[in-house]
Each structure stands twice: as C-alpha cells, then as structure tokens.
Specification:
By secondary structure, this protein is of the alpha+beta class. It has two helices and six strands.
C-alpha cells in the first residue's frame, strides 16, 4: 500500500472515530460510507444505504452508550479503485470495552476512499 492510499484510508477512519463517535456528528457518515454502502452488523439484518446506516449508528451509539472507538488496520490490499481492509477495533462504552474484528471493502467515491461494505463481530 502506498503512503498516500494508507493516509486516505486513515483519514476516513479518523472521521468515524472522531466526528461520528466522539462528537456524535452522524451527518459525517456521508464522508465515511459510499452512497449505496451496506453494513452487516452481528446478529442483525443487512442494512443498505447511507440514511439507513445513519439510523443504525445513531441507535447503536445511544443504546450502547459508546464513548469512543479506536480502529486499527491489520492488513489492507488495494485493487484499483477498491481496497479490502482487515482490522480490529476497541469500542469503549460507559460500562466497559469490547474488542471486535472487522472487514471493510473500500471504494473511491467523489475522489475519496469510503467504506462500501462493512462487517464486524466480537473478537
């Protein structure tokens, strides 16, 4: 992975960590997910499209009382305008922390790298 590509992915991940999770700015998800993105949360149905994803994250953050999240890329492979990232995250809540592992399929949209398919489950 080239340094520019790695930096672009890290920038998007930081928007999720800082703007969405810490500041509760769920409108920032437009800078994280592609327009037709899909998420596959553990134990739940697949969710498609930014409006539905925004609704999911607002509900999840509130119900879990999430205070912060740290995303860590373990491996990433670039394939043209697509990238596949394997990572782990620590989700911190008011009642404790939980470790998860994830896979994100990235796509370039409007000149930025964004999450196109996002799946995670507990470690």
């Amino acid at each position: 992975m080239g340094p520019q590509s790695a930096s672009a992915l890290r920038k998007t991940n930081q928007i999720f960590e800082e703007e969405v999770v810490i500041r509760g700015n769920f409108n920032a998800l437009e800078s994280v997910y592609t327009e037709n993105a899909r998420i596959l949360p553990p134990g739940a149905a697949m969710i498609e499209g930014r409006p539905a994803i925004k609704e999911f994250w607002q509900g999840a953050a509130a119900s879990l009382n999430v205070t912060s999240i740290q995303l860590e890329t373990v491996d990433v492979e670039f394939l043209g305008d697509t990238a596949v990232e394997i990572g782990r995250a620590m989700i911190n809540t008011q009642s404790g922390s939980m470790a998860v592992k994830y896979v994100v399929v990235w796509k370039q949209e409007d000149g930025a790298w964004k999450w196109h398919i996002d799946i995670w489950n507990p470690s």
